[in-house]
Design brief:
single chain; mainly beta; six-stranded antiparallel sheet; 1 helix
Length: 121
Amino acid sequence: MSNFNTPLRSGNYVGEIISQKLSKSKNDNPVFEAVFGHLGFQTADGFEQVDTGVTRTVFMHLTTKSQAYTVRKLAECGFEGKPSQWNLDSEEAIDCTGKLVKLHMKITEYGEDWDVSLGSG
């Protein structure tokens, strides 16, 4: 059990991409950052709206080891392109803001762990 205090429950969510940017990890690998808002928690009856001011960020690292997995997650966000095109400052940017994406969150000893759901568990 975590001692991290969060108002949210572990489980499946849907969220809207409200911003996106590309950064670099400490090992100089691309990191795709997607900020999600308008979150809904999945219940047996559909989705329960989360407080409208709540946002969460998903960090998707692109390494040799994670490449296939990250590319699948980016496709779920509506993105299929070169890493530089994730930056909205790029002339050839692919803007995924407004896209609704299935998410999963679990609470760990370090806090909330958010990820794009690929429907595989």
